[in-house]
Sequence to fold (146 residues):
Amino acid sequence: MKKNPDNAIERAAVGSDLPPVRAASKRILIVDDDAPLLAELVKILTAREYMVTCAGNAEIGAEAIRDQNYDFVLLDYRMPGKNGSWFMRHASLADKTKVLLLTAFANRQLIDEVMKLGASGYLVKPIDEDELLQHLEFHSSRKTGE
Fold:
């Protein structure tokens, strides 16, 4: 897959064929350098009225967290430059923000490391749409720290 060459934060626009985003929508930050995956996740999530922001690397993601509160962060582990662990250590996450690790590497040590840093769960790539939505629903109903 082609990687996202530009590291700018991209705000997903709701297309005219999709339902409008309501004020009560959950905010999701996706931190991943895989442009095709970002596009697919934006399509899935905005169709379900999530408000989505994308960041192409961990540093841009940490900047986005400073500018806005999010309900969820979908976080890739391996990206150019800083990795997911760096993000978990340096991003100023709100108490209510839940992080779901996205990884193509089902490595128990890597997953444990990010979970110890505060992630709520993980998904193994390629991401299954139903599984993603189930995770978001499940974690939406849980309080942070449960």
